[in-house]
Amino acid sequence: xxxxxxxxxxxxxxxxxxxxxxxxxxxxxxxxxxxxxxxxxxxxxxxxxxxxxxxxxxxxxxxxxxxxxxxxxxxxxxxxxxxxxxxxxxxxxxxxxxxxxxxxxxxxxxxxxxxxxxxxxxxxxxxxxxxxxxxxxxxxxxxxxxxxxxxxxxxxxxxxxxxxxxxxxxxxxxxxxx
Length: 178
Description:
single chain, alpha+beta, four-stranded antiparallel sheet, Muramoyl-pentapeptide Carboxypeptidase, domain 2
């Protein structure tokens, strides 16, 4: 696993400032086209984590094709819960309803992204899409490689960047025709 991914900690303000300054530099230099490159970078970091965790689960025998096929949504939900539990720091509430997994960080939980945005001066309407949402999508997309017929769709339900009184809620819809 890369040093960047190993050292990720969602409570480190200086780390977020550095990351947001890098993204800001790309935007200032290349304009909105930099969005895609930055998004892919954080997606790749998430995919790396997802792949390594996937291999770990297969080696331990806790992830099998049969288990996934019988409960695809619960399998991915539990996979994400284990990742966040082991990562430490702020813990999103994670639950599923039907075919959708939700990650919620309540508005009163300190998030370094808000302070990092203010300090770095990055001006992007949805920095979380570039940064953390892409990372989690990368983790979840690992499953698509191993289970043909699986598609995941992500969307933002609410965000403190768009409404300061809102909780941050992301939804990951799991569609599996396996």
